[in-house]
Design a protein that fits this description.
The protein has 480 residues and is α+β, with helices and mostly antiparallel strands. It has a domain of 177 residues. It is built from 16 helices and 12 strands. The strands form 4 sheets. Strands 3-4-6-5 form a 4-stranded mixed beta sheet, with helices on one face. The protein is flat, with a radius of gyration of 35 Å. The N terminus is likely disordered.
Length: 480
Amino acid sequence: MPVGLDRFVRVMSGGLVVTDKLVEVRTGKVNATIKEVENKIKEVKLTGLACPQLDKAVADLTRDRDTALKLKGNKEKCEALEPVKERARETAKQAVDVVSQAQAAVKATDDAIKAIKALEDEATSLKKLGFDTKEMDDQFNDLVEMRVDSAKLTDIAARTKSATAIKKQADEAVTRAKALSKAAADAGATDKKKPDATQKSKIYEAALKNLYGLEIEVPNGMTNTHFDKVFDMFSKVPKDHVGKGKLNKLLYDKDPGWAGGGAYNSALKRVRMGEFGTATKTEKYKVGDTEVDANSFNVTTLHEIGHAVDDNNNVMDSHMGTAGFGKWKKEEIADVATACVTELKKTAGLSDKVKEEDLKKAATAAVKDGKTDKPNEIEQPDWDKIKKWLTDTVLVARSKPYFKATWTEVGTSAYTQDADTGGWWSYDPNERKANGVNNYQWRSPAEWFAEIYAITWLAKKPPKGVAADVAKHMWGGKSA
């Protein structure tokens, strides 16, 4: 069969010769595929997103194409262009996927914007009924700010993740707002027949029951339940912190002994709230370098929610002994007494007549019962020194030290006794300096978590100096 001159490969003297035409055609295929990828890149960048991996791939393909075309022989050129052509095809396939991912990011952003707008609409409707929507308005403003920050993200995955999180938060806020709107509608409220204060309280109560599945018990005659504040505090945290099954009951107690207090019952998943009167009292917290005046009713409500979060996620029981969690340790009386004896022997300047077993008895009596009665075995001069040390150290640690700004150190640990349970705890004083928000936090591991949880969500500031497994439950979702 004759061989035509238009063939890309000619037979000459029994060998193969690659024509210029073949080089041209192969180069054209590479160029066309590179152009296809470049068009996909432009499509992505029009959305404000970036695709650095495709940019690099095009740069590499262009470089390798140019390098191949600088080779002397057509055969060498074609052989070098072949893998470039195959890589270009694979890159084109990847570009299609990247465009699809960018489109998904754009849709996630659009969905987030719609959800934010829906929250604004719900808040507007509630305003017309006379409801205070400050919490919803604050959430709306936060979401708008988050949306602005999200728009600055050029990484496709990061933008998608951010927009999805914003939509989730907005959707939860809309759900809460709609629950309140429904409770208002069920109560017959309209913009022409706005509910009074008593009716609003019942509407908030109904919304809490319907939205969170809460059983609510109020003593006869108790009216200052502040259901509006409870609703707002529940609205501050993610719904999965307080959703059905996470908290079961809200119990009010008008006993004077519960005035201004709260408690969480892990067995019943129940929050008990005391009599807070007008609920206007404030208390000071520190978040990072900022001092915060926190409304006592609000911070107490969030504190008890924090106990539920800790309980449901087994946070402190799993990690309390590590850095970033306070480095807490459950102490037995014998262990505390032993630590005291070690310090007494080092610091009290006692005579050689004092025996260690007598010191142990004296320390144990102070730790266990708060007694500092002189034992017969210890002489008065030595006992005066021992008693002063025990009074200044052990008795201080027994007398609710978590209400004071100072703490009791024995050796390298700080010690405290929980007055309600009688149990002893120790923690690392350096942790107190690193992640302290107030004094009460240092009563026990559970209180440590609940106090940080409460103030970070109330102040909308991330915690400082805590481990990642704590920070993920706090406002901001990460450590400062």
